[in-house]
Each structure stands twice: as structure tokens, then as C-alpha cells.
Amino acid sequence: MSFTRKAALGVVACTAGALLTGTMGTAHADGDLYGAFAIANLDDSTHIAARWNYPDQASADADALSACGYSNCFIKLRWSNGCAAYARRDDNLFWAIGATRAEAERNALAAAGPDPNPLLVGLGSAEPSTATIRHSACTANAG
Question: Which superkingdom does the taxonomy of this entry point to (predicted)?
């Protein structure tokens, strides 16, 4: 197989992989890719939308805001060429980015702080509370 055909096959495989992840937007194998989380704080809940694999930040922001669907939506987190995640502990959200999904998720959990010591919870001097990853997303060109 010639180099040109191998390169073309690689581009097709990367593009197909990006499309199969269920993300919206256009992936460019040789350019920067952008993502955004939009959030709306409602009276009794929070609505969050994530969009990634866009060729520019403005497009990622616009689609995340549109997907959020409320008039008070705003962009909470932007990233490019990597991953983003958010964790939840009780009613608090913690946002982070990273080069890989694992790194972004670790960073979000670290931002939430350590879980209470089980011994202190058992003695009644601390409330049980665990941070959990609620969502993470990566651009197609993430490490």
C-alpha cells in the first residue's frame, strides 16, 4: 500500500472514530479542536450541556449554549485539544481539564477535595460525602 493510501486510510479511520463517539461538530485531523460545557442554574436543579470537536471555540460555545436550552445558560468551561470533566459532591460541581480523560477526571475529583475520613464519619463528627464524576468529554485529538 502506498504512503498516500496509508495516510488517507488513517484520516478516514480518525474521522470515523470521531463520528462514532456521539459528539457533535466537525473533526479536523490536522487542526485544533475545541469544546465547551454550558450550564443553567434553575430553581431546583442544574442543566448542563457539553459539546466538543469543533474547529473553533466560538462554534463550540454557541452549540453548547443552544443545547443547554435555557435563557440563563452560560459557558462554564472551555477546552481545546484535550479533555474536560466535572465531578459532583453534594450540591457542588467541580470542573477540570486534562490531556486525557483519566487526567481530566482525576483533576475534577482533586478539585472536589478528599472524601471525609471513614473513621470520622463512623464517629459522627463528619458527614458521609463522596465526589463522583458526572460527565467527561474529549476532543478527537486528545492525548
Answer: Bacteria
φ, ψ for residue 123 (rounded to 5)? -85, -5
- Per-residue model confidence as pLDDT tens digits over 89-109: 988 999 999 999 999 999 999
Average pLDDT over residues 57-71: 97
**10 neighbors 4 (Cβ within 8 angstroms):** no
Domain boundaries, the chain: 3-138
Percent helix, strand and coil across the chain, each to the nearest 5: 35, 30, 35
| pLDDT for 92 | 92
- State which H helix or E strand residue 71 sits in: none
